[in-house]
Amino acid sequence: MAIQQRAERTRQEILSAAARVFDGQGYERASLARIAGEARVTTGALVFHFATKADLATAVRGRACAVTRITVESACLSAEGVGGTAIDKLVITTHALIRLFETDPVARAGERLARELQLTDPGMSGDCPWRREVSRLARYAAAEKALRPGVDATAVAALIGYVITGVELEMRRPRTPSDEGWPADGPRTAENGALHGPAEQRLGRIWELILPGLVHPTGRPHGV
Known about the structure:
Radius of gyration: 19 Å
Number of strands: 0
Order of helices and strands: HHHHHHHHHH
Distance between the termini: 52 Å
Largest sheet: none
């Protein structure tokens, strides 16, 4: 039993190290030797648990999908306390996702791997729970007649997907003097809580810009 526990602990440490390396270096530049060094194990020990880099990437993506799914589910539950409409859930879910990407290298690694592997091997890119949820909520918003006439739910889902991906990519860009135009104290979320970081502040500003074109005034989420 103790040996099995140590093996599982080593496996989890390797996965965490792989996520950090994939997050920082990307799939192509990552190597088993680099990941083993980050995990402080031998390459042989790493290969015992994960035979190839592709196996590691698949496992990291699986963990990222799991944590992302939990985040999305929790966000939707929290929206019930502020109205619970599909628009409320969309706004709160996107803020929760950006907060996750700001703080969790596993989630960020999953996003980066999804992009990079889709370019080289579409079969490895897998599906994305947060994109599915955004699509579902956009359809619910249309069913609730919360969207303006002529606004297509599929287009809304695509737009929000681009926004989330864009803000997540922006996190990776080094800060420059031009970034000073973004206020240190941003708007508040639909959860009526202060925004937690620069990326989430940017998302709040983006929502302020796009919501009037998407949603009936009566469908505006609480606090936005």
